Amino acid sequence: MRFTEFAVAAAGLHISTAFARDGQQQQPLGVESRPASNSAKKQPNIIFILTDDQDLHLNSLDYLPFIKKHLIQKGTSYKRHFCTTALCCPSRVSLWTGKQAHNTNVTDVNPPYGGYPKFLSQGFNTNYLPVWLQEAGYNTYYTGKLFNAHTVENYNSPHAGGWTSSDFLLDPFTYMYLNASYQRNQEPPVSYEGQHTIDVLTKKAYGLLSEALTDAESRPFFLGIAPVAPHSNVDIKSLDGDPDDIENLVSFTPPIPAKRHEHLFKDVKVPRTPHFNPDSPSGANWVRTLKKQSTENVEFNDHFYRQRLRALQGVDELVDGLFSLLEKHKLLENTYIFYTTDNGYHIGQHRLQPGKETGFEEDINIPLIVRGPGIPAGEISNAVTTHIDLAPTILKLAGAPSRADFDGEAIPLREEEQSHAVEKRHEHVTVEYWGFAASEGKLFDKGETRLYLNNTYKALRIIGRDGAYSFYYSVWCNNEHELYDLKTDPYQLRNLLHAEEKDPETLLGVPFTKVVARLDSLLFVLKSCKAQTCTQPWRALHPEGGVQNLQDALASRYDEFYVSQQKRVRYDRCELGYLLDAEGPQFETEGLVYRQGARWDEWV
């Protein structure tokens, strides 16, 4: 058995926590229990844990015993939960605002198209979740990574709004596991060189929880905890130079675990699924040009995978200590705990080096587990949910009004809500990306590049009721198309729209081309949708009703409307950010709607 002890001082309270990796109970010590009066409040406490780049499809959750114990076994896991942009900053801004990236226009990790400066310039510093929660009567706390390009230079110009108390992890040290810089409230940044960033974060998270307890009897609290694990370790070589010359600016290495975890999982390897380093290329655009990885490359990627699992052990311990504190203070009966990540991750699938930023299932289908009052324990929900839905969900829990400009809708949490969702909830996800894709592992082929700049695409993921159908459809900025039938091809190895593939004659019992036409029209609406149109796109196409899902849209009376009349998704050129004049025709100005009498009209 190996233990490490943390002394956490916050608001005059000292918490010492022993962590064990052998499944033994952890117990925070030294804080006197408080009365359980908070449980009588109508407004619940909310804790939101947001990891960085954690996978669902590479089975990382299988190696986290405390998360299994406290969250998976005591809460509901959402197996069809998706991010809508597979990149850190755009995904986080969408999460905290309830808006698609094409409506936030924060589409990258750095300026000019993304990062904290773009978040500020878009006006969100006074118009996102923590601000709304404060207006609803909450104290709000946060520690860890907020956004990329939130730095030791710009953290106070202005400070991030909406937080009662905060302790942010700052660039350019965000991804340095042993050289982090944190910045508390209005104070200057402090370097923690030589200390493991997850251990530092753990102390800060427990400290903020202690602060929240001082007012817990009179005000509910929201606590966000955002560890950097299992993101790659990134060392900054230079702050100047060509941003496209990434090799001279940064150095990517596998995550660095705490010393107590570095011996774990020595024989574990990346799951050898059919799409792991396949013999034949797959996908479209630059992905289809990738070479099969060498044995040496695969062995390194297995090491990379193990380092991710090891780095996550500190997060697992943090969660266990957190639940010990919640139990000690009798807060669990009135607290909701969310566990998710900003985007997924791939290692070797489709011959890809470690990274994210694609529309493949590994990158967009991500963990979401929720535990709290009334939420079924040990259950799996098949409702289609996204990061755009999380802000509406949290506001609903807080008893605060929803917002008319949300692009998502509240996630069904309680059993009766989940039953209703089976019949009524939307079945689609809008997926979008602009800019580059980066390989974060080691490059073994001399001709291999670390950055692929033509990685802009629009896509949709659609899963029918009871799994009747399951498709991924995308259009790249070079106007290549992809379509995968995940019922017959769950590993997305056969792009049905690639020139080398023979199109199937039928899908869902109708001619193949007619299904593609419906999917393209649905994407045509979603790629620039706003507010309710994002959750009810069929209503935009069929304002008189009659079509609520793909199956309804396949009725033969709509064939000419979809196949011959509707505009098609296309790009005019590839860009690194969201520039409307590069995005081809827009449904709002050039699309058609179906009307029963006139059959179809121009969109007005």
From TrEMBL:
Instruction: Give the originating organism.
Output: Rhypophila decipiens
What's the protein name? Arylsulfatase
Molecular function as annotated in GO:
arylsulfatase activity; glycosaminoglycan binding; N-acetylglucosamine-6-sulfatase activity
**UniProt modification remark:** The conversion to 3-oxoalanine (also known as C-formylglycine, FGly), of a serine or cysteine residue in prokaryotes and of a cysteine residue in eukaryotes, is critical for catalytic activity.
Which catalytic reaction applies to this protein?
Answer: an aryl sulfate + H2O = a phenol + sulfate + H(+)
Source domain of life is: Eukaryota
Which class of enzymes does this protein belong to? hydrolase
Q: Where is the Sulfatase N-terminal domain?
A: 44-400
Pfam families membership: Sulfatase
**PANTHER family membership:** N-ACETYLGLUCOSAMINE-6-SULFATASE FAMILY MEMBER, SD21168P
Task: For this entry, list what GO says about its biological process.
Answer: phenol-containing compound metabolic process
Per the UniProt entry, the signal peptide is: none
Task: Give the similarity note.
Answer: Belongs to the sulfatase family.
Q: What is its EC number?
A: 3.1.6.1
The record's annotation in InterPro entries points to: Alkaline_phosphatase_core_sf, Arylsulfatase, Sulfatase_CS, Sulfatase_N
Q: Which UniProt keywords apply?
A: Glycoprotein, Hydrolase, Signal
Question: Where does the record place the modification 3-oxoalanine (Cys)?
Answer: C88
